[in-house]
Amino acid sequence: MRGAGARVAIGDRDLPGAEHTAADIGGNVAAFALDVTDTASFSGFLAAVKSSVGPIDVLVNNAGVMWVGPFDTEPDDATDRMLAVNLHGVIRGVRLAAPPMRRRGRGHIITIASAASRLAPPGEATYAATKHGVLGYLTAVREELRDSGVRITAIMPTVVDTELAVGTATGSAAMLYPADVAAAVVTAIEKPRFEVTLPSYVGPAVRAVGLLPQRVRDVLMRRMVPNQVDAVRDSTVRADYEAEALGRDGIGDPTSTDES
Questions:
Q1: Per 3-state DSSP, what percentage of the chain is helix, strand, and coil (rounded to 5)?
Q2: Could you tell me if residue 189 is left (phi over 0), alpha (psi between -120 and 50 degrees) or otherwise beta?
Q3: Does residue 107 fall inside a structural domain?
Q4: Which tens digits make up the pLDDT trace of 146-199?
Q5: Which structural domain range is residue 94 located in?
Q6: How many angstroms separate the CA atoms of 37 and 33, rounded?
Q7: 202, 113 in Cβ contact below 8 A?
Q8: Residue 227: inside a domain, yes or no?
Q9: 163-181: b or e for each residue (b if 16 or more CB lie within 10 Å)?
Protein backbone atom coordinates (compact mmCIF):
# COMPACT_ATOMS: atom_id res chain seq x y z
CA MET A 1 0.00 0.00 0.00
CA ARG A 2 2.90 2.37 0.68
CA GLY A 3 3.99 1.83 -2.91
CA ALA A 4 0.53 2.98 -4.00
CA GLY A 5 1.01 6.27 -2.16
CA ALA A 6 -0.60 5.44 1.19
CA ARG A 7 0.76 6.44 4.56
CA VAL A 8 0.84 3.14 6.43
CA ALA A 9 0.45 2.36 10.13
CA ILE A 10 1.01 -1.17 11.45
CA GLY A 11 -0.50 -2.45 14.70
CA ASP A 12 0.61 -5.61 16.51
CA ARG A 13 0.80 -7.04 20.02
CA ASP A 14 4.49 -7.52 19.34
CA LEU A 15 5.51 -3.87 19.05
CA PRO A 16 9.21 -4.59 18.37
CA GLY A 17 8.12 -6.98 15.61
CA ALA A 18 5.85 -4.31 14.13
CA GLU A 19 8.68 -1.78 14.29
CA HIS A 20 10.99 -4.24 12.54
CA THR A 21 8.41 -4.77 9.79
CA ALA A 22 7.94 -1.02 9.41
CA ALA A 23 11.71 -0.58 9.05
CA ASP A 24 11.85 -3.35 6.45
CA ILE A 25 9.11 -1.67 4.41
CA GLY A 26 10.90 1.66 4.67
CA GLY A 27 9.59 5.12 4.01
CA ASN A 28 7.06 6.80 6.23
CA VAL A 29 5.64 3.65 7.87
CA ALA A 30 4.68 3.85 11.55
CA ALA A 31 4.27 1.02 14.06
CA PHE A 32 2.01 0.95 17.10
CA ALA A 33 1.02 -1.50 19.83
CA LEU A 34 -2.35 -3.18 19.23
CA ASP A 35 -4.22 -6.05 20.86
CA VAL A 36 -7.39 -6.60 18.85
CA THR A 37 -8.95 -8.52 21.75
CA ASP A 38 -8.88 -5.44 24.00
CA THR A 39 -11.15 -2.45 23.40
CA ALA A 40 -8.88 0.03 25.19
CA SER A 41 -5.90 -1.14 23.15
CA PHE A 42 -7.79 -0.89 19.85
CA SER A 43 -9.14 2.56 20.76
CA GLY A 44 -5.65 3.66 21.74
CA PHE A 45 -4.24 2.38 18.45
CA LEU A 46 -6.80 4.29 16.39
CA ALA A 47 -6.21 7.46 18.42
CA ALA A 48 -2.43 7.15 18.13
CA VAL A 49 -2.62 6.65 14.37
CA LYS A 50 -4.92 9.65 13.97
CA SER A 51 -2.60 11.81 16.05
CA SER A 52 0.59 10.68 14.31
CA VAL A 53 -0.50 9.99 10.74
CA GLY A 54 -3.92 11.57 10.31
CA PRO A 55 -7.52 10.38 10.00
CA ILE A 56 -7.78 6.74 8.96
CA ASP A 57 -9.06 6.35 5.42
CA VAL A 58 -8.60 2.56 5.21
CA LEU A 59 -8.53 0.05 8.06
CA VAL A 60 -7.32 -3.46 7.20
CA ASN A 61 -8.40 -6.07 9.75
CA ASN A 62 -5.77 -8.78 9.37
CA ALA A 63 -5.61 -10.53 12.73
CA GLY A 64 -6.18 -14.27 12.78
CA VAL A 65 -5.27 -17.48 14.59
CA MET A 66 -6.16 -21.08 13.73
CA TRP A 67 -6.09 -24.38 15.57
CA VAL A 68 -6.44 -27.45 13.33
CA GLY A 69 -7.62 -30.93 14.26
CA PRO A 70 -10.70 -33.04 15.04
CA PHE A 71 -13.53 -30.95 16.48
CA ASP A 72 -13.83 -33.10 19.60
CA THR A 73 -10.16 -32.72 20.56
CA GLU A 74 -10.04 -28.93 20.25
CA PRO A 75 -8.92 -27.38 23.57
CA ASP A 76 -11.17 -24.79 25.18
CA ASP A 77 -8.43 -22.17 25.08
CA ALA A 78 -8.06 -22.66 21.31
CA THR A 79 -11.80 -22.14 20.84
CA ASP A 80 -11.76 -19.04 23.03
CA ARG A 81 -8.72 -17.58 21.28
CA MET A 82 -10.13 -18.02 17.78
CA LEU A 83 -13.41 -16.41 18.77
CA ALA A 84 -11.60 -13.54 20.53
CA VAL A 85 -9.23 -12.73 17.67
CA ASN A 86 -10.96 -13.83 14.48
CA LEU A 87 -14.51 -12.75 15.26
CA HIS A 88 -14.60 -10.39 18.23
CA GLY A 89 -11.47 -8.61 16.99
CA VAL A 90 -13.15 -7.80 13.69
CA ILE A 91 -16.37 -6.70 15.39
CA ARG A 92 -14.38 -4.48 17.74
CA GLY A 93 -12.36 -2.89 14.94
CA VAL A 94 -15.41 -2.15 12.80
CA ARG A 95 -17.41 -0.81 15.72
CA LEU A 96 -14.60 1.58 16.69
CA ALA A 97 -13.38 2.65 13.24
CA ALA A 98 -16.61 2.96 11.25
CA PRO A 99 -18.41 5.74 13.21
CA PRO A 100 -15.61 8.34 12.70
CA MET A 101 -15.50 7.39 9.02
CA ARG A 102 -19.27 7.82 8.78
CA ARG A 103 -19.04 11.26 10.39
CA ARG A 104 -16.41 12.25 7.79
CA GLY A 105 -18.54 10.79 5.01
CA ARG A 106 -15.83 8.50 3.69
CA GLY A 107 -13.68 5.51 4.61
CA HIS A 108 -13.07 1.88 3.82
CA ILE A 109 -12.79 -1.13 6.13
CA ILE A 110 -11.19 -4.19 4.57
CA THR A 111 -11.22 -7.47 6.46
CA ILE A 112 -9.01 -10.39 5.53
CA ALA A 113 -11.50 -13.18 6.12
CA SER A 114 -11.01 -16.59 4.47
CA ALA A 115 -12.51 -18.90 1.90
CA ALA A 116 -13.67 -20.62 5.11
CA SER A 117 -16.27 -17.83 5.26
CA ARG A 118 -18.06 -19.78 2.51
CA LEU A 119 -16.55 -23.25 2.98
CA ALA A 120 -15.94 -25.42 6.04
CA PRO A 121 -12.92 -27.72 5.79
CA PRO A 122 -12.89 -30.71 8.16
CA GLY A 123 -10.40 -29.95 10.91
CA GLU A 124 -11.22 -26.24 10.90
CA ALA A 125 -14.69 -26.30 12.45
CA THR A 126 -14.33 -23.40 14.89
CA TYR A 127 -12.07 -21.43 12.56
CA ALA A 128 -14.72 -21.74 9.83
CA ALA A 129 -17.41 -20.73 12.31
CA THR A 130 -15.52 -17.53 13.14
CA LYS A 131 -15.08 -16.71 9.46
CA HIS A 132 -18.73 -17.42 8.67
CA GLY A 133 -19.53 -15.07 11.56
CA VAL A 134 -17.26 -12.38 10.15
CA LEU A 135 -18.98 -12.49 6.77
CA GLY A 136 -22.42 -12.36 8.38
CA TYR A 137 -21.42 -9.43 10.56
CA LEU A 138 -19.92 -7.48 7.66
CA THR A 139 -22.99 -8.15 5.52
CA ALA A 140 -25.26 -6.56 8.14
CA VAL A 141 -22.94 -3.63 8.86
CA ARG A 142 -22.53 -2.91 5.15
CA GLU A 143 -26.28 -2.45 4.83
CA GLU A 144 -26.35 -0.17 7.88
CA LEU A 145 -23.63 1.95 6.32
CA ARG A 146 -25.34 2.16 2.93
CA ASP A 147 -25.09 5.67 1.43
CA SER A 148 -22.78 6.80 4.26
CA GLY A 149 -19.62 6.89 2.15
CA VAL A 150 -18.07 4.08 4.21
CA ARG A 151 -17.25 0.95 2.21
CA ILE A 152 -16.88 -2.60 3.53
CA THR A 153 -14.85 -5.34 1.87
CA ALA A 154 -14.31 -8.99 2.83
CA ILE A 155 -11.31 -10.62 1.16
CA MET A 156 -11.58 -14.41 1.25
CA PRO A 157 -8.41 -16.26 0.21
CA THR A 158 -7.88 -19.99 0.14
CA VAL A 159 -4.73 -21.32 1.88
CA VAL A 160 -1.97 -18.70 2.11
CA ASP A 161 1.68 -19.54 2.71
CA THR A 162 1.96 -18.17 6.27
CA GLU A 163 2.64 -19.63 9.71
CA LEU A 164 -1.10 -19.84 10.32
CA ALA A 165 -1.45 -22.42 7.54
CA VAL A 166 1.72 -24.42 8.13
CA GLY A 167 1.17 -28.14 7.65
CA THR A 168 -2.30 -27.80 6.15
CA ALA A 169 -3.44 -28.90 2.69
CA THR A 170 -4.63 -26.63 -0.12
CA GLY A 171 -7.24 -28.88 -1.71
CA SER A 172 -7.86 -28.20 -5.38
CA ALA A 173 -6.56 -24.63 -5.21
CA ALA A 174 -2.92 -23.65 -5.61
CA MET A 175 -1.07 -22.17 -2.65
CA LEU A 176 -1.43 -18.41 -2.35
CA TYR A 177 1.20 -16.01 -1.03
CA PRO A 178 0.94 -12.88 1.14
CA ALA A 179 1.72 -10.72 -1.89
CA ASP A 180 -1.42 -12.10 -3.58
CA VAL A 181 -3.55 -10.94 -0.67
CA ALA A 182 -1.78 -7.58 -0.48
CA ALA A 183 -2.45 -7.02 -4.19
CA ALA A 184 -6.12 -7.83 -3.61
CA VAL A 185 -6.27 -5.22 -0.84
CA VAL A 186 -4.85 -2.53 -3.12
CA THR A 187 -7.25 -3.51 -5.91
CA ALA A 188 -10.20 -3.40 -3.49
CA ILE A 189 -9.24 0.12 -2.47
CA GLU A 190 -8.97 1.24 -6.09
CA LYS A 191 -12.10 -0.62 -7.25
CA PRO A 192 -14.25 -1.29 -4.17
CA ARG A 193 -16.20 -4.54 -3.97
CA PHE A 194 -17.87 -6.20 -1.01
CA GLU A 195 -16.77 -9.82 -1.57
CA VAL A 196 -13.41 -10.73 -3.04
CA THR A 197 -12.41 -14.38 -3.31
CA LEU A 198 -8.89 -15.56 -4.06
CA PRO A 199 -8.51 -17.21 -6.51
CA SER A 200 -11.35 -15.31 -8.19
CA TYR A 201 -13.08 -18.47 -9.43
CA VAL A 202 -13.79 -19.70 -5.90
CA GLY A 203 -16.83 -17.45 -5.37
CA PRO A 204 -18.65 -18.43 -8.57
CA ALA A 205 -17.73 -22.10 -8.06
CA VAL A 206 -19.16 -22.17 -4.54
CA ARG A 207 -22.36 -20.48 -5.69
CA ALA A 208 -22.74 -22.93 -8.57
CA VAL A 209 -22.13 -25.98 -6.37
CA GLY A 210 -24.66 -24.64 -3.88
CA LEU A 211 -27.41 -25.04 -6.47
CA LEU A 212 -26.84 -28.79 -6.75
CA PRO A 213 -28.54 -31.53 -4.73
CA GLN A 214 -26.86 -32.21 -1.38
CA ARG A 215 -25.48 -35.61 -2.41
CA VAL A 216 -23.79 -34.19 -5.50
CA ARG A 217 -22.64 -31.12 -3.58
CA ASP A 218 -20.98 -33.32 -0.97
CA VAL A 219 -19.03 -35.26 -3.58
CA LEU A 220 -17.77 -32.13 -5.30
CA MET A 221 -16.88 -30.37 -2.07
CA ARG A 222 -14.86 -33.37 -0.88
CA ARG A 223 -12.81 -33.09 -4.06
CA MET A 224 -12.36 -29.33 -3.81
CA VAL A 225 -12.00 -28.66 -0.09
CA PRO A 226 -9.02 -30.06 1.83
CA ASN A 227 -9.57 -32.41 4.75
CA GLN A 228 -7.31 -30.85 7.35
CA VAL A 229 -7.88 -33.64 9.86
CA ASP A 230 -6.10 -35.95 7.42
CA ALA A 231 -3.48 -33.30 6.62
CA VAL A 232 -2.30 -32.88 10.23
CA ARG A 233 -2.83 -36.43 11.49
CA ASP A 234 0.33 -37.78 13.19
CA SER A 235 2.13 -34.51 12.41
CA THR A 236 3.81 -32.13 14.86
CA VAL A 237 4.66 -29.46 12.31
CA ARG A 238 2.02 -27.08 13.69
CA ALA A 239 3.07 -27.47 17.31
CA ASP A 240 5.32 -24.41 17.50
CA TYR A 241 2.84 -22.13 15.76
CA GLU A 242 -0.10 -23.24 17.91
CA ALA A 243 1.95 -22.98 21.11
CA GLU A 244 2.84 -19.39 20.25
CA ALA A 245 -0.54 -18.33 18.88
CA LEU A 246 -2.74 -20.05 21.45
CA GLY A 247 -0.42 -20.36 24.47
CA ARG A 248 1.19 -23.40 26.05
CA ASP A 249 -0.53 -22.89 29.39
CA GLY A 250 -3.85 -21.40 28.38
CA ILE A 251 -4.77 -18.62 26.03
CA GLY A 252 -1.24 -17.28 26.26
CA ASP A 253 0.39 -14.23 24.75
CA PRO A 254 0.68 -14.51 20.98
CA THR A 255 3.43 -12.36 19.59
CA SER A 256 2.78 -12.16 15.88
CA THR A 257 -0.88 -12.68 15.09
CA ASP A 258 -2.66 -9.40 15.89
CA GLU A 259 -2.03 -7.12 12.94
CA SER A 260 -4.26 -4.43 11.43
A1: 50, 15, 35
A2: alpha
A3: yes
A4: 999 999 999 999 999 999 999 999 999 999 999 999 999 999 999 999 999 999
A5: 2-246
A6: 12
A7: no
A8: yes
A9: bbbbbbbebebeebeeebb
Q: Is residue 260 part of a domain?
A: no
Q: What angle do CA 82, 150, 147 make, to 5 degrees?
A: 130
Radius of gyration of the chain (CA): 18
* CB contact at 8 A, 30 and 22: yes
Q: What is the CATH number of the domain that holds 239?
A: 3.40.50.720
Provide the 10 A C-beta neighbour count for residue 18. 23
pLDDT of 247 reads: 66
What DSSP element (H or E) covers 107?
A: strand 107-112
Could you give the residue ranges of the DSSP H alpha helices within 63-155?
Answer: 76-82, 89-104, 125-144
Per-residue pLDDT reduced to its tens digit, 110-155: 999 999 999 999 999 999 999 999 999 999 999 999 999 999 999 9
Q: How many domains does the chain have?
A: 1
Q: Strand pairing partners for 111?
A: 61, 154
Residues with catalytic function: 127
Give the list of residues 6+ apart from residue 22 with CB closer than 8 angstroms, or none.
8, 10, 29, 30, 31
